[in-house]
Each structure stands twice: as structure tokens, then as C-alpha cells.
Amino acid sequence: MKVALQDPLLRIEDVAALTGIPVNTWRTWIASKKGPQPAKLGGRLFWRRSQIDRWLDEQFAAAAASERK
């Protein structure tokens, strides 16, 4: 039985496709503790969709704030 998650879990390939940021960049960020950090579940890395959406919103807000300076 499949259960639909209200806040889906994303693998690194999903996050890369969603953001347009290459998988290798995400791997570098994970290692250097930059960007949203994933949870390790069953030996695999996952992000919540809401976590990625929130991070993207923060990036756009920071960019808008720097444009106003």
C-alpha cells in the first residue's frame, strides 16, 4: 500500500532537477555543510520538498535584499 506524503521526500537527483543545480554541486555542498542538509534514511540522502522550497525562498529574498543596497 502506497501512502501519499503531504511533504514528499526528494533524492539528490530530484533536488538537482527541481533547482537546476547539478548533482555534483549538491554533493559538494553536503560535504561542506552548505545549503539545506539532507537526512540519511536507510543509507540514502533525502530532503523534504518544503525544506527545498524554503531554501529557494531564502535565496530569492537575499538576492532581492542585495539588489536594494
UniProtKB/TrEMBL annotation:
Task: State the source organism's domain of life.
Answer: Bacteria
Domain spans labelled Helix-turn-helix: 9-59
One Pfam assignment:
HTH_17
Q: By what name is this protein known?
A: Helix-turn-helix transcriptional regulator
